[in-house]
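Lecture notes, continued. The same structure-token format from the folding unit now serves as the input rather than the output. Read the line below as a description of shape only.
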């Protein structure tokens, strides 16, 4: 198993994994991501914020990171944080506890980079994701409505946003 930054040649695969995730969301009747824009993924790769987990050389999971997320989380500039977005597993690797692997990676990454919080969100009351995230140690915070979702993907205007965080506290 290896976790590393995504590369240009991963772009099509990343987009296909996002499309697969959208299909899964649709089949479960949960709030769906909009189609993910290629340019967004390319920018994240260029900035070193798009990551992948490899199992036996195959991309099993992808996600992006940010270091501030004021539109969703409010002003957290004084709270050094790693924000995780768009976790998508390859269909053949679902059910393999890869979110747990990602969380362990994120903890180590935060400790190495003096970041106190690991944060993520989901739109809508997706009980399966809430159980998954809290099962991996995330505290579930009060859901919020985004006041101005105009610069966010369209699904942020559809429902409440559920916020989750792990506070690494004195470990950093």
């Amino acid at each position: 198993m290896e976790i590393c930054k995504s590369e240009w040649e991963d772009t099509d695969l990343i987009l296909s994994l996002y499309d697969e995730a959208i299909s899964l969301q649709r089949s479960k009747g949960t709030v769906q991501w909009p189609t993910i824009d290629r340019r967004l993924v390319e920018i994240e790769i260029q900035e070193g914020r798009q990551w992948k987990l490899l199992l036996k050389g195959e991309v099993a999971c992808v996600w992006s990171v940010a270091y501030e997320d004021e539109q969703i989380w409010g002003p957290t500039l004084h709270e050094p944080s790693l924000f995780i977005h768009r976790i998508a597993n390859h269909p053949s690797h679902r059910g393999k506890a890869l979110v747990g692997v990602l969380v362990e990676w994120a903890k180590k990454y935060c400790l190495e980079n003096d970041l106190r919080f690991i944060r993520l969100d989901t739109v809508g009351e997706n009980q399966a994701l809430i159980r998954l995230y809290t099962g991996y140690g995330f505290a579930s915070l009060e859901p919020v409505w985004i006041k101005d979702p105009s610069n966010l993907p369209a699904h942020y205007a559809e429902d409440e946003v559920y916020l989750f965080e792990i506070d690494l506290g004195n470990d950093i």
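Point for the exam: The radius of gyration is 15 Å.
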